[in-house]
Design goal:
Blueprint lengths: L2 E3 L10 E6 L6 E8 L1 H16 L7 H17 L1 H12 L3 H24 L4 E2 L10 E9 L2 E5 L7 H13 L3 E4 L6 H12 L7 E3 L1 E2 L2 H9 L3 E7 L2 H8 L7 E5 L5 E4 L5 H13 L11 E5 H16 L19 H16 L3 E4 L12 E4 L6 H4 L6 E7 L2 H8 L4 E2 L1 E5 L3 H10 L4 E4 L15 E2 L2 E2 L4 H7 L1 E9 L4
Parallel strand pairs: 1-3, 3-9, 6-7, 6-10, 7-8, 10-11, 12-13, 12-18, 13-16, 15-16, 18-19
Antiparallel strand pairs: 2-3, 4-5, 5-22, 11-21, 14-15, 17-20
Helix pairs in contact: 1-7, 2-4, 2-6, 3-4, 4-5, 5-15, 9-10
């Protein structure tokens, strides 16, 4: 029997419910209650009352205890969490297991940042104005955190938003993607089981866009965390109340430079995994590969061969390597973009066909023209484009030509080539002899240009969700 998830807003009444279905085969997984404008108001009021009454603030010891217990519970339910994430989001089970492991490690990282948090002394006594004074800083929570999350990593993204908020001492309200709310709600329930009072972390799937906008734009919100499309992210940022800080994480059209002296087998294995992983539905998936002309076709053909051997299908199977796209409309869109590129002159090396309403072949395109839709936009599908170049600076110019910039990569055995690419590429991170989708959860993770605002990564988010507060003591004894 399908499970039913309750609205996680103490004191609120559900306004309805939505069904959650598996993107692979449309199977009904669960239903989840939705909240309307009234529920949003109750959630905001719950959180705001907690924050404004400092006697209710959780001590560092209490926060550490909750996070440690939550990590332990997550470990004990590891397989359940992995299967649930795979079913609702479509990421193959082996990769969903990696996601759960990362999420557990992320909770432990939240404990580490609490333990290592400290203020600093501000120099005094350096001139007449600062004599007989001692100054130092401490940290306090910034206020109510509202988080809007994405579908593609339903558990780990929630950890990246909820975990730092709890660590910082902020009441948090999270609205997961409607396609994949179950992992997020499961995380909230685990936190409550670990001893977190219910109102400190609330979860809501809103009935409509107006209720979601109300949640984000309220003047009681101290910090807004968004992971999703640029179109929605920038729109919501424009509606924030004065004083609300924010971090936005959008997508990129990740560029890779491959020199003639790159290790071919190593490069092929890494690019294939990072381009086809989770059917390309990752914000830093390999999409645009600029390869030196002498090796470009060989590289494209070897990536195509690797992709053609990957098993596509049921994400809950242990041997599946590429799962479904999140919605049937996305499968159709990917097919349209690939056909547009072929119609405009791209060579289809492999793939290019829908396998079903939900799955698309691992596809490699060679030399799509600059005006093809796929050359200008994030495909968010299992498609890798290989472009040949003769001059590396021409390739870098093409790589930098879009209004997005996130992570990039360069493959070469020549340190000067790598350093040149690192310096010239528009990116917040450049991987050398590694793919664009590399990430550990404590490193800075930041989209530039239209790709985002602020810096992600658990320690960085933790700092963003706090204020630095200074005390200055004046004493004639100093």
């Amino acid at each position: 029997m399908a499970e039913h998830f309750k609205l996680l807003v103490p004191g609120a009444t559900a306004a309805g419910s939505v069904d959650v279905t598996a993107p692979f085969d449309g199977a009904h997984i669960a239903s989840i209650e939705t909240g309307d404008s009234n529920a949003v108001e109750i959630a905001l009021n719950n959180a705001h009352q907690l924050f404004t009454d400092k006697s209710q603030w959780l001590s560092a010891e209490q926060r550490i205890d909750v996070l440690e217990k939550a990590a332990h519970i997550m470990q004990s339910r590891f397989d359940e969490l992995a299967v649930e994430a795979a079913r609702e989001g479509g990421k193959p089970l082996p990769d969903s297991k990696v996601e759960v492991a990362r999420a557990i490690d992320g909770m432990k990282n939240c404990v580490e940042v609490i333990r290592s948090e400290h203020g600093e002394e501000i120099p005094m006594g350096k001139n007449a104005a600062s004599m007989n004074r001692l100054a130092f800083t401490t940290h306090e929570p910034i206020g109510v955190v509202v988080a809007v999350s994405a579908f593609n990593h339903p558990l780990n993204l929630a950890v990246h938003q909820v975990g730092p908020a709890i660590a910082a001492g902020c009441p948090v309200i999270i609205k997961p993607a409607e396609d994949t709310p179950l992992s997020c709600f499961r995380l909230i329930e685990i936190l409550h089981q670990a001893g977190l009072p219910q109102a400190w972390c609330q979860g809501i799937v809103t009935t409509d866009h107006d209720a979601a906008t109300q949640l984000v734009s309220d003047n009681r919100v101290g910090f807004f965390s968004f992971i999703g499309s640029a179109r929605v992210g920038w729109m919501l940022r424009s509606k924030l109340a004065p004083g609300t800080r924010c971090a936005l994480e959008h997508g990129g059209v990740a560029p890779v430079i491959v020199s003639h002296d790159a290790d071919m087998d190593d490069t092929v294995a890494l690019l294939s995994k990072a381009g086809f992983y989770h059917a390309g539905q990752v914000c830093v998936s390999v999409q645009r590969v600029y390869a030196e002309k002498s090796i470009a076709r060989e590289l494209a053909e070897k990536i195509a061969d690797t992709g053609s051997k990957m098993k596509i299908g049921d994400p809950t199977s242990d041997d599946t390597e590429i799962g479904p796209l999140i919605r049937h409309a996305e499968t159709d869109r990917v097919a349209e973009w690939v056909q547009d590129a072929v119609d405009k002159g791209a060579e289809l090396i492999a793939g290019g066909e829908k396998i079903s309403d939900s799955c698309y072949q691992a596809t490699v395109l060679f030399n799509p023209p600059a005006d093809a839709t796929i050359s200008k936009n994030e495909i968010f599908g299992p498609v890798i484009c290989v472009y040949e170049y003769e001059d590396i600076d021409d390739a870098i110019e093409q790589a930098n030509s879009l209004d997005v910039a996130f992570q990039a990569a360069v493959f070469s055995k020549n340190i000067d080539t790598c350093m040149h690419a690192f310096k010239q590429l528009d990116a917040s991170a450049v991987m050398v002899n590694d793919h664009t989708a590399f990430r550990v959860d404590w490193m800075p993770f930041a989209g530039l240009k239209h790709s985002g605002h602020g810096v992600g990564g658990i320690p960085h988010t933790f700092r963003d969700m706090q204020i630095e507060k200074m005390m200055v003591i004046r004493s004639p004894s100093l």
